[in-house]
Design goal:
Layout (H helix, E strand, L loop, with lengths): L1 H36 L9 E5 L4 E3 L10 E2 L4 E2 L2 E3 H13 L3 E6 L9 H15 L4 E9 L1 H7 L4 E10 L12 H7 L2 E5 L11 H4 L5 H26 L3 H9 L6 H6 L5 E2 L5 H7 L11 E4 H7 L10 E8 L2 E2 L8 E2 H13 L3 E10 L1 E3 H15 L4 E10 L1 H4 L6 E4 L4 E3 L5 E5 L1 H7 L18 E2 L2 E2 L5 H26 L3 H7 L4 E3 H7 L4 E2 L2 H11 L7 E4 L6 H17 L2 H14 L8 E3 L8
Parallel strand pairs: 1-6, 1-11, 2-5, 6-7, 7-8, 8-10, 12-15, 12-25, 13-14, 15-17, 17-18, 17-19, 18-24
Antiparallel strand pairs: 3-4, 9-20, 16-26, 19-23, 21-22
Helix pairs in contact: 1-20, 2-3, 3-4, 12-13, 16-17
């Protein structure tokens, strides 16, 4: 049986490899043909840089060389990371050939909530140079409008769409499904961690009062940030903006124009007159030299001087997990080795630790925490929080010299839990699976499982042991925060309890030092290392095993090819329901993913 499993897996990988090589070859030759046949992008004295979100803008560079490969179309989707985007905008600000920026969100790329806030901030800095920013779209979501609101002028298609409804968070609860399957869940969490809501989808059918309160606070905080910044950019009244959302008064383009959200309703070709009015000269063929953000990156690469001292950037993006791995998660071994590299590199004088993680394994979090401590003992460490740095993500941030959080960052969630899936009814009555055991001691079979389902419930003695383990981890977690943030333990215990906070409230509570993004963190790191006058930024990346990464992606890619769309969606839903079930040991994890669309 083992031979056939290995044989079939290998065959599947070979099949996927052949398909990928064929697809990549077609993509490569198609790309070459396209470049040969079409006009090469170029930089002239009247260049406009277009941000269309054709690229996926991630927090960290992907560790996976096939992360953006679409196995269904056999093409590579363009991508970049936030640091390069910020550096590129800074270069464009100083580039005399660039006259302005054109926002037109027609691409299929994505960006995180934290990335959106930091991109908006960088665009505001760009405007201070005196160059223009204009925006046009056929339809604006709340997220795209939040970004577009920095523009000097905003235009909308006359028959387009506009969304202005406020924010909502909808949680999915699986308890009913688990009951129908004959599965039960036993949860272990400290009594004081009443806000630790990662377990709720498996034991409840609706929000608990505590979770409802903190979720309401989070959407209110995020919405307040958006409304405040949009109101300031568009010279609108925040109270009026809320009234318009409550009454659904901005749905059609003419309503967006009437209430000052946009400056005009025009067709896209009419943007040429806008460019002309802004003083941009057309080319000989009467077109305008518009290059995409990705093209500008290629034509004007951001170069740093390797001879200067460096601010290093280490990334922690994804779920915190034990051991090492090749996918885009925060593995304790991988991240610890990367932090160690930064510590031992004498040319790196300070480190920005970019955290974008909901947490995960408490043990893995502590392993990484120790490496941050060792790094901080040798050189300044500044944490830059992205969309979220919660639970284990906050654990690994706590020892830093300073923490800078985006205003839209979701953080805190200082709490832990353990969870056990039990399903005797499912195994025996519905699947016909029974188990039997011989053992030397009473608890020898504690935690043994079949198909990820425990074969028996914990007895009272075992339950007490597990609860003690959870309590001990919570005590360690809170003490790490108290020491790292120089806060009285009484205050930490008051603001912990598994409760989540926005970046704005985190600063008020002392969980973060200031609001800002990656640029502010880099500047602070350079200042603390006394290298502000002469430094460059150096990404310190994980050393990955290319063969293991390739094989992992070949298998997942082949599975994607072989499954139809409906089956892939069912598998995705199953994975989300199983997510917390497969976590072993005590967890410091926060389940929130809030979006502003």
């Amino acid at each position: 049986m083992k031979f056939w499993k290995v044989f079939l897996a290998t065959l599947l990988a070979i099949l996927a490899s052949g398909l990928i090589m064929w697809g990549s070859s077609m993509f490569f030759f198609g790309l070459i043909a396209g470049l040969s046949a079409g006009n090469q992008p170029k930089l002239t004295s009247d260049t406009i840089v277009k941000i269309d979100l054709a690229e996926t803008i991630s927090d960290a560079p992907s560790k996976d060389p096939f992360a953006n490969f679409d196995y269904n179309t056999m093409t590579m989707n363009p991508s970049t990371n936030l640091l390069k985007v910020l550096q590129t905008l800074e270069a464009a600000e100083k580039d005399e050939r660039v006259k302005g920026i054109y926002l037109n969100f027609t691409g299929t790329g994505s960006i995180t909530t934290g990335g959106l806030e930091e991109l908006r901030s960088a665009l505001l800095s760009f405007k201070e140079s005196g160059k223009f920013i204009v925006a046009y779209n056929e339809a604006y979501s709340q997220g795209s409008y939040y970004l577009a609101s920095v523009a000097d002028k905003i235009y909308l298609h006359p028959e387009g769409g506009f969304s202005w409804t406020g924010l909502a968070q909808t949680n999915i609860f699986f308890k009913g499904a688990l009951d129908n399957l004959g599965l039960g869940v036993e949860v272990f969490r400290p009594t004081v961690c009443k806000y630790k809501s990662a377990v709720e989808p498996y034991i409840r059918k609706e929000f608990s009062p505590e979770n409802r309160a903190q979720s309401q606070m989070m959407v209110d905080d995020m919405w307040a940030v958006m409304v405040e910044q949009i109101a300031a950019s568009r010279s609108l009244d925040p109270a009026t903006l809320n009234k318009l959302a409550d009454n659904l008064e901005v749905v059609f383009p003419e309503e967006a124009l009437k209430h000052g959200f946009v400056n005009g309703l025009i067709y896209e070709h009419e943007m040429e007159k806008v460019f002309a009015d802004l003083g941009v000269k057309a080319q000989e063929d009467n077109t305008y030299n518009i290059v995409s953000l990705g093209e500008y990156m290629t034509l004007n690469p951001v170069l740093s001087l390797p001879v200067s001292p460096a601010v290093g950037i280490v990334y922690a993006e994804g779920t915190v997990m034990d051991g090492e791995g090749a996918d885009n998660n925060v593995y304790s071994v991988n991240v610890s080795e990367t932090l160690r590299k930064a510590r031992e590199n004498d040319n790196i004088k300070a480190v920005v630790f970019r955290v974008n993680s909901p947490g995960g394994s408490a043990l893995a979090s502590d392993v990484i925490w120790k490496e941050v401590e060792l790094l901080r003992a040798k050189k300044p460490v500044i944490v830059s929080m992205g969309s979220y740095a919660a639970s284990g993500g906050y654990y690994i941030s706590a020892p830093a010299d300073a923490i800078i959080a985006d205003r839209l960052t979701l953080t805190g969630s200082i709490g832990v839990f353990g969870m056990m899936l039990e399903g005797g009814d499912l195994l025996e009555k519905k699947l016909g699976i029974t188990t039997d055991v011989v053992k030397t001691n009473k608890a020898a079979d504690m935690g043994q499982s079949v198909l990820g389902i425990n074969t028996r419930k914990f007895n009272e003695q075992e339950r007490k042991v597990f609860i003690r383990s959870v309590d001990k981890v919570y005590e360690t977690f809170t003490s790490r925060v108290a020491t790292g943030r120089n806060l009285p333990m009484e205050k930490v215990l008051d603001i912990a309890q598994g409760r989540v906070w926005s970046g704005v409230r985190a600063v008020e509570l002392g969980l973060a030092d200031s609001n800002g993004g990656l640029r502010e963190a880099i500047a602070l790191a350079a200042d603390k290392a006394n290298i502000s006058d002469n430094f460059h930024v150096e990404e310190v990346l994980e050393d990955m095993d290319p063969f293991m990464t390739l094989m992992q992606q070949l298998n997942s890619g082949a599975i994607s090819i072989l499954l139809d769309k409906d089956t892939r969606e069912a598998v995705s839903l199953y994975k989300s329901m199983k997510e917390a079930m497969v976590r072993e040991g005590v967890q410091a994890y926060c389940p929130y993913t809030l979006n502003i669309d």
